[in-house]
Amino acid sequence: MNVGESARQWSSSEPDLLVVGGGIGGLAAALCLARLGRTVQVLEQAPAFGEIGAGLQLAPNAARILDWLGLLDPVMKDAFFPSRIALMDALTSAEITVMATGEGFRARYGYPYFVTHRADLHSVLVEACELEDGIELHPGKKVVVLDQTPGAVRVECEDGSAFTATALIGADGIRSFVRDQLVGDGEPVSTGYVAYRATVPIQVVQDAMGIAELDDVRCWIGPTMHLVQYPIRGGDLCNQVAVFRSRRLGDGGAGAGAPDELDEVFSQASEQVAGAVGLMDRDRCWPMFDREPGSGWVRGNVALLGDAAHPMFQYLAQGACQAMEDAVVLAQSVSSHPDIGAAFDSYVGTRHPRASAVQRRSRMFGELLHVNGTMAAFRDHMLRRRPDTDYGDVDWLYGHSVLH
What we know:
By secondary structure, the chain is α/β, with parallel strands linked by helices. It is built from 14 helices and 18 strands. The protein has helices at 24-35, 60-68, 72-76, 103-109, 118-130, 177-182, 202-209, 247-251, 259-266, 271-277, 319-336, 340-369, 373-383, 395-398, and strands spanning 17-20, 40-43, 55-58, 84-89, 95-100, 114-117, 135-138, 143-148, 153-157, 162-165, 167-170, 189-201, 217-222, 225-232, 237-245, 286-290, 298-299, 302-304. It has a seven-stranded mixed sheet with strand order 5-4-13-14-15-12-16, sandwiched between helices. Strand 14 and strand 15 (237-245) form a beta hairpin. Helix 1 (24-35) packs parallel to helix 5 (118-130).
């Protein structure tokens, strides 16, 4: 990347911004920027704008943003609204602690906690962007060259096409090309954990577990493993994610995270949990990676957003939520500052402390979930003492608003 002095003002001869990456964070950024008067082109390397994965948890801090964008109702149309988030013992099936997410939760934060299919949220964002005059969506555009000059940012794509704008947002995920050009901090670091995912008819899951109903978010926790379950698509389907530390991955051995290792790790679990794990899609597992929180999100007129800036562990279910917070703050900063450098500095100054705190606490929570022996017993003893309406530990997360 050729780096020059940042353009001081927004150019009138070029589109305002390029967004590299058409996932949830990139589309939310494009929409927020366009709603506040900027023109945006979104470059997505996939041949079509779509989303892989399955379930997604959306907390009040994200629902608040969707409401501001006028998208909350369509996103919630096929969502499921759990009345509880429960931590369960994966070895004994005993309940450890619960957080109620019903009327009292809504009253406290002004918005619900709900779960949906990732593709449902993504499709709503795509449709909103397609209806916005200031946004152009370009699928099939894998960026391979990025040049930054005093007045513009220019990218070249694998298919030979090129795009120029006054500034650029890298929203291209944990293996971000834009981040590599900006920071050059190499590959993300393996955590040693892998994940298996499945979307299964809810009745099949209930039958496999021998339970009458599954109508909440459940996280079954055990030594170096956990299983998350919750209904999606209005309660017709169950999203399942099984996560465990792969001994073979840590040893650098063959077959790391293979299905037989999944079965081996979860063989210590209760019959209920083992029955659910038996339904996992075994065709693919996802190794889990991490990066240390860092502040190098901006260089001149290029900035990072979402997982490209601060990849999140899933333990607080805040990946998409934090990307949407980024989108709002970025758009507000751009709207408030005619100087690009000042706008991007304001964005990082606001978002870096918050996103880094969520990164660190998510990591800490993951460590707490996976302890064994005496530490697990102490954890369970302390958690069982808390009432299900004690929200003191999550007020900082769910009560936070980036809107002003």
